[in-house]
Sequence to fold (802 residues):
Amino acid sequence: METTIDITLIWVVIIAVGVIAYVLMDGFDLGVGILFPFAPGETSRDVMMNSVAPVWDGNETWLILGGAGLLAAFPLVYSVFLPALYIGVFLMLAGLIFRGVAFEFRFKAHRSKGLWNAAFAVGSAVAAFAQGAVVGAYIQGFEMDGFSFAGGPLDWLTPFTVLTGIGLLAGYALLGATWLIVKTEGDTQAFAYRVAPWMLAVVLLVFGAVSLITPFIDPKVMERWMGTWQYLWVLPALALFSAWVLIRAVRRRDEGIPFVATIALFITTYLGLLVSKWPYVVPPDYTFWDAASSPDAQLFILVGALFVIPIILGYTAWTYWVFRGKVTPETGYH
Amino acid sequence: MELDPILLSRIQFAFVVSFHAIFPVFTIGLASFIAFLEFRAWKTGDTIYTQISKFWIKIFAVVFGMGVVSGLVMSFQFGTNWSAFSYATANFLGPVLSYEVLTAFFLEAAFLGVLLFGRDRVPQGVHLFSALMVALGTFISSFWILVANSWMQTPVGFELQDGVFHVTSWITAIFNPSFWPRFFHMGLASLLTAGFVVAGVSAWYLLRQRDVVMNRKALGTTMWVLLFAAPAQLVVGDIHGLNTFEHQPTKVAAMEGVWETERGAPLLLFAIPDSANETNHFEIGIPKMASFILTHEMDGEVPGLLEVPAEERPPVGITFWSFRVMVAIGMVMILFALAGAWLRFRRRMYASPLFLKGLAWMIPAPFLAVVAGWFVTETGRAPWLVYGVMNHAEGITPALTGGMALFTLIGYVAVYAAVFTGGVYYLVRIVRQGPEPADAVHAPAHAKRPLSAADTFVDDAAVSGARS
Fold:
């Protein structure tokens, strides 16, 4: 209807890409933390931690950027999600802090290693679960009074969100396991090959259950998938295909394909979720455009974002390139 | 008793932001110090500067890391506890705070890695340039944060539409009336903080005769900075105070403990303000001095707290006493700076145990002064979030209950207590371990994270030689 560029749409793309970038990148290092207690021995734990040591904090920068970006571009999302997930946000932050500190101090510890191991594993698991619950809460929608959240403190914690929480926990563990397949060898890699199918099984179970339940929670979703948009079914089909590729690759002991297949599984699921809810970002009633800040505010920060984000991406890519290849017990980053 | 979510959220914010503030205020000043050392090393080729810089870069890395961790919490506080405020002010504060984050990440991505790990891998000029950019970047970061805070203190350049702030002039809003005094006040506070920490730690080493040449150099350099910065802060602080007097007279009335509007108001050295009875007890003051400082006339008029209704007055006791703590520490800092100059003139600066001990004891003082100063300006703004436009009750998260706020308050206290006890303990270990010789060769650290720049262990080896 108008010829000017829709800045809000640009921000939708930035935030949408930012979220999946965060999920994939912090996902595998949180996943390594979730698998940590089950690793075959302390040497293996050293290897696991070293495999993510150079990149984990870079991965988490996207979370902070996302928080600030939401406040600037979609303040309604920021001012509804955070109060609605009040306790969950606290648990996630506490988890991430303990995990971050454990990362640094475990390498510099002798006697207190066990303590840092526990902090790393528990912190990772709590953060992952809380993020999964966010997904569930988003699907459920929010009780609103005008432009503010009007629900209770534990609305975000329902059987459904516990389900999505477990789903993302297993999903991150799967990302972590397939990452370890790429990055390690010997005992650690064998361990990763062993757990990957189990994690995939949990992911698929939750994926199936959530897919069945969601249309009944939100009639719009039912209408979308059963109505005119039926070509959408290509997304779950691709997700299942990715799962099949993943299993086959694990059986054949391929090293790179399981990780790529897991990423494909995440992206297709994520796209499925986005199109299910589109264009609502604070369900059930508010769209991205309702949630947007004023155009001049979005433009003002867009200038900075377009300048800095490519630099951060370049730096991220460079870091991954520098630390490519297998991590062995002899590789010490410390 | 009914738990008040507003009061608990205010305590929570005060707690997390006070904890957070002490890290950046130190790293901003320290980054400039490191950049100066790198410049001197480049200019003179004297390795003593490199040795000092190497040691303080390790400290910088750990403190920067702790600042990032506590900053993570800060970026969510606005939304969790003050969602109505966030929603209303997002058109301005959203971009401003995002620019702060972008600056910080740009800095980290582009230059911090080179500064921390690149000394032996890039030409010295490039390393120096990175140090300068890190120093500049920390100031740009503080620029954005102080823009946000100053705007909340002296909001301009906006119009309200349906309770939402819309920016009418970005330039006016960014360079709002209290911005520049606040920026220079904080900039000097950062230099003073880093200065007193470096001076204190160097003095501590000198008292123990450790690395004498290096620590004399560090102390000597720092005392010059303090000799300039400590008195300058008195002037800038005064300008900032006059600015507050112009724009937020109620805050100044609370700082000075003035209830009734009066001419020739005394400067109170001691008093116990009593908000219930709208008076002070046990006043001890210098006659007419408050009027003189604020209006530069002995009989100038100082508007009192009673000019505004009780519900628009800040908590007087906290504002009043925080102000006195800040000013008193500032005065002690000036004394130390002058004592240093005098001892230097007498060529006894490195040999006076009393002076060196005093400096070592001064290490916590600048942090206390900074937190007290923020208490003055933030408590003094109460009950407003955006001065004169939006108060605490309007900005609080509507769905927040007292129980939820209490739960997370206890949670953050527990998390911070654990994490920062660990952090400070680790810093003390680094200091005790001491600097390395200028020509120490390192196994290359590969990880590009701040804390990896420090290689001290957090605990003692159970088996000697376990360190690999």
Q: What stands out?
A: Chain B touches chain A through 71 residues (CB under 8 Å).
